[in-house]
């Protein structure tokens, strides 16, 4: 019999500097194992912010999809993606397609949407030769470590994401919205509190204001919940930023962030955010077959640069519905 949800397995390794690691006994039936341990794994993710399951032996997309379906409450279809993904099955995606030599800095997945995933599921089918960890950081600890005057401003104003969709950087219009039909895109924007404007060249430019701090829907803990640093021009590689500024100009970058009132966010602020994230980062290199659950509200995550092939599948579940444009970022459900 699987253990009671109130009694987590005794072989969870809690080592400073790494996420909790649960050593699973391989059974050859990962889906059944996940179904039996579902409540325990979800409880561990809520308690610690994340948990890495090692030894389960995940080996292909079909098996992974079955595991994800057992662990989630319905896998979500991604909309407003910032980078393209391959879709393996309904709600089962590749990790975002981003250059392997560039880090994907700490962020909360889809925290600029109105229905962000509360739980992320990762499965490593192929570990890289080096690097490539999905590192995590406690969002409550990050919030506590940031200057009070900075967080107070973001709580009062929220943050603003600006995007210009093109076919060169990040997700295309079709990849982000699931359609290239203008009327459908406009309906989506109106229904999701996104200001939009079509440009003379046919590009779409959008603006959306979201909260920067969110109370966890289960624990009530206040969490730094946004993508202010990750989607900022100042987190880009300097050469990439210079190129994009030359080609598109400051007002038409593929993505950028501002204070909720529209003021620019300085490079010093973004550097501070990333340094605080790094001070609270824990990491564990992937091994093929690993499974990882990440509480997307409690925990930020990143993808570190890597060498060699890397195949990590992603599922998103447990939607957290946010109040449109609310600067405080209070969850509705």
Automatic annotation (TrEMBL):
What residues does the TauD/TfdA-like domain cover?
36-316
Query: Does this entry carry the keyword Cell inner membrane?
Result: no
Keywords recorded for this protein, A-Z: Antibiotic biosynthesis, Dioxygenase, Iron, Oxidoreductase
Molecular functions (GO terms): dioxygenase activity
Q: Which cofactors does the annotated protein need, by name? A: Fe(2+)
Q: Which SUPFAM superfamilies match?
A: Clavaminate synthase-like
One Pfam short name? TauD
Coiled-coil residue spans: none
Q: Name one GO biological process term.
A: antibiotic biosynthetic process
Keyword ATP-binding annotated: no
Name assigned to this protein: TauD/TfdA family dioxygenase
Q: What is the species listed in this Swiss-Prot or TrEMBL entry?
A: Streptomyces rimosus subsp. rimosus (strain ATCC 10970 / DSM 40260 / JCM 4667 / NRRL 2234)
